[in-house]
Design a protein that fits this description.
The protein has 26 helices and 8 strands. By secondary structure, it is α/β, with parallel strands linked by helices. The protein has an 8-stranded parallel barrel, surrounded by 7 helices.
Length: 537
């Protein structure tokens, strides 16, 4: 029996270990070798890479994808998509979702692994339909977690519905690395008995379980597993590719991978890993085994970002308290799986509760939108006291929130105006307006004679345009309640959800703790009255 291997070094591995800061020019030379290894697929796009390319690396994410496709013509390219949220942090209109998928596939993507953070399949209907229409592999992922409301029976029923909705493959997405070998064996067995879909298993090495779980999953019938080349494996990343391949082949399975090419790949990434360690970008904390993750269930990327942001705020000593608060907030919200955007929603609120010194003294707009039902149906019962505090007597929204949104692509094209140089640019603007505007402004002034996807010059070496940002009324009200009314009025808050990431020009990981960090610093330091001042510190 042949077992496929999906290599994650270009996406989830580096996202989990170094917050997606690997530049295209750092890995471009190894792409032809990666193409010859024999992987089932190469995960290289989606997730946080899109945002990070423009925000930090001064790269066009679409050009990065085209360059990878050009140098890896023989390997399936795979991406991660957040369903109706695409690569952002809120639901987008259907026309933007469809056009984004169309352009992703036409630019080189073969497999789109799509998930919804709440496993609400209504949020995947448009994505799956368009992926299939465009000839892609619509791989629907079950966001795996454990809780009183997540049972084997519920996962089996979910798998049936995924097959019925037209998915072409299915994935068990264990983003926190908490799935035990027995749980993996049971779930894989049940899904293979229930559906006819190819089954992928994705996990993280955070708790030290993933390699064992992969082996039991393969024995139960899993077709493909996700791994990372050993120099970027372990800890919050995936199990090492070489170790998994060697173990499987010793047990009589075929992988088809070229061991010599794997060594070339690992030798290439070793000095890059050492560079990140020396620069402090790769924190040794994320490389170890943390069994506490079995309790707090924080995904790899979220954990590395929590550490990074707490260190930046001088509050790393509060990490254990934030992690302990995380499962309590999760329970209040009906046990959502912790994966983007719910990991950010829960993580930010947990941090806010700890740093503000009082639970729900301030409540983020994302939590409010979640409680209103804008992200979908919560898996379990919401804390009624929290609902009452936020909603009053207003009933929850029960439908598919995207149905309330009007088409947005033409508006994005009109708003971006002359900054747009391609159809893909309009989509970049639609997802991250502020980020794209800054990126496009830099693009017009930076000449890249090599014609590559990103400038050889790092973002930190370039002049970054100044962006004025105002204080967030939710943050301010937590520590300066007397100013909350005036600020809220001046902000003219929209009635539907907006995200920290979009409105205040912060990225995925920064949004996790920014709310809490600002609240903490506002107590003593007026320099932190705006997000722009934080960027400058």
């Amino acid at each position: 029996m042949k077992i496929g291997i999906t290599e994650t070094v270009l996406r989830d591995a580096q996202q989990s270990l170094i917050a997606t800061r690997m530049r295209y020019d750092e890995f471009a030379d190894i792409l032809p070798t990666l193409d010859k290894v024999g992987y089932y697929s190469l995960e290289c796009w989606g997730g946080a890479t899109f945002d990070a390319c423009m925000r930090y690396l001064n790269e066009n994410p679409w050009q990065r994808l085209r360059d990878i496709r050009r140098l890896c013509p023989n390997t399936r390219l795979q991406m991660l998509l957040r369903g109706q949220n695409l690569l952002g942090y809120k639901p987008y209109p259907d026309d933007i979702v469809r056009e984004f998928i169309k352009r992703s596939i036409s630019n080189g993507i073969d497999i789109i692994r799509v998930f919804d953070a709440l496993n609400d399949l209504r949020n995947l209907e448009t994505s799956v339909d368009e992926i299939v229409k465009q000839g892609g592999d619509a791989q629907v992922a079950i966001a795996y977690t454990t809780s009183p409301v997540h049972t084997l029976e519920n996962y089996i029923e979910l798998a049936k519905q995924i097959e019925q909705m037209g998915a072409t493959s299915i994935c068990i997405k264990d983003m926190s690395g908490i799935m035990t070998p027995k749980e993996c064996q049971d779930l894989v067995t049940a899904i293979k008995e229930t559906t006819n879909l190819r089954l992928h298993v994705h996990s993280h090495a955070t708790a030290g379980l993933a390699t064992l779980s992969y082996l039991k999953g393969v024995e139960a019938g899993a077709d493909v597993v996700d791994t990372a080349i050993s120099s970027f494996s372990g800890g919050t990343s995936q199990p090492p590719t070489e170790t998994v391949v060697h173990s499987l082949e010793q047990l009589g399975y075929e992988t088809g991978l070229d061991r010599e090419k794997l060594k070339e790949v690992n030798d290439f990434f070793k000095p890059l890993r050492d560079k990140y360690l020396a620069e402090g970008m790769l924190d040794p904390k994320v490389l170890g085994t943390d069994v506490d993750s079995l309790t707090y269930q924080v995904p790899g990327g979220m954990l590395s970002n929590l550490i990074s942001q707490l260190k930046a705020a001088g509050q790393i000593n509060k990490l254990d308290q934030v992690l302990a608060e995380t499962p309590r907030v999760r329970a209040d919200l009906g046990y959502p799986p912790l994966v983007t955007p719910t990991s950010q929603i829960v993580g930010a609120q947990a941090a806010a509760n700890v740093l503000a010194g009082e639970r729900y003294k301030m409540i983020s707009n994302e939590v409010r939108a979640y409680l209103r039902g804008e992200y979908g149906k919560a898996p379990g019962q919401l804390n009624p006291d929290l609902v009452k505090k936020v909603m009053g007597d207003t009933p929850q929204f029960q439908g598919r929130f995207a149905d309330t949104l009007t088409n947005g692509l033409a508006t994005a094209q009109a708003e971006a105006g002359t900054l747009i140089e391609s159809a893909e640019d309009a989509l970049s603007y639609a997802l991250f307006p502020q980020v794209f505007q800054e990126f496009a402004a830099k693009r017009q002034t930076v000449v890249n004679p090599q014609g590559q996807s990103g400038s050889k010059q790092s973002v930190s070496e370039q002049a970054v345009p100044t962006v004025t940002a105002s204080p967030n009324p939710v943050l301010m009200s937590a520590v300066l309640p007397e100013k909350a009314t005036a600020i809220t009025s001046s902000e003219n808050l929209p009635t539907q959800n907006y995200t920290l990431a979009e409105k205040y020009d912060v990225d995925d990981e920064t949004a996790v703790l920014l709310m809490a960090i600002v609240a903490y610093h506002l107590r003593t330091d007026p320099r932190f009255l705006s997000f722009q001042s934080i960027r400058e510190q």
